[in-house]
Amino acid sequence: MQIFEDKNFINNINNTLKKGGIIAFVTDTVWGIGCLPNNEKAVKKIYQIKHREIKKPLILMSNKFNYLKKYIENNSQEMMNNLVKKYFPGALTIVSKKSNLTPVFLTSNMSTIGIRVPDNIIFQKICNIIDGHVLATTSANISGNPSGKSFQDVNNELGDKVDYIFEDYGFKAKGLESTVIKIENNKIDILRQGAIFL
Asked: How would residue 75 be classed by pLDDT, with cut points 50, 70 and 90?
């Protein structure tokens, strides 16, 4: 894992992302692809790569909740804090009202955005070295196909479409997607049952 200490590599990855590049990476659930959240060109490229419907939003992921906070507004602050304390890092995606900092091209023009902090040391190291520490993400697969569960899966399906695929260094994805919930007015709605049961 020496690449995470290599200044040239870190500069190259950040330059690639700034120019609209797409990276692929392991998480605790399934593999993902991502780009910088404020780069509309890169976001459009993700939709093209995946043949993803434009009405399906991306989510924001980071190695720390503190980096994600500015992208959301929430009127259920105590509930949000309790969920974050209990399940982050982990296989829970929380959908909340977006802040003005969250571009509408990430949210499919919706007023909400999903956030998550995966429990995977490689993903966390990736976020640690990228500027801003946040990625706009979705699963690493062509829409309709199973989500990528290994480096080989992703390389076979998307290897010629993304700019860089990080190795997992033995910290493998478990293969089950995150649970997705929406919190609003102190209520929790389960949008997708996944690895975590609330």
From this structure: confident
Q: What is the C-alpha R_g of the chain?
A: 16
Q: What is the DSSP pairing of strand 134-139 with strand 59-62?
A: antiparallel
Architecture of domain 2-192: Alpha-Beta Complex (3.90)
Cα distance between residue 129 and residue 112, in whole Å: 27
pLDDT tens-digit series, residues 118-159: 999 999 999 999 999 999 999 999 999 999 999 999 999 999
Q: What is the mean pLDDT of the chain?
A: 97
Would you list the domain boundaries of the chain?
2-192
155, 191, 128, 171: CA torsion to nearest 10: -50
* pLDDT tens, residue by residue, 17-49: 999 999 999 999 999 999 999 999 999 999 999
Cβ neighbors of 118 (< 8 A, separation 6 or more) are 27, 28, 29, 61, 89, 90, 91, 124
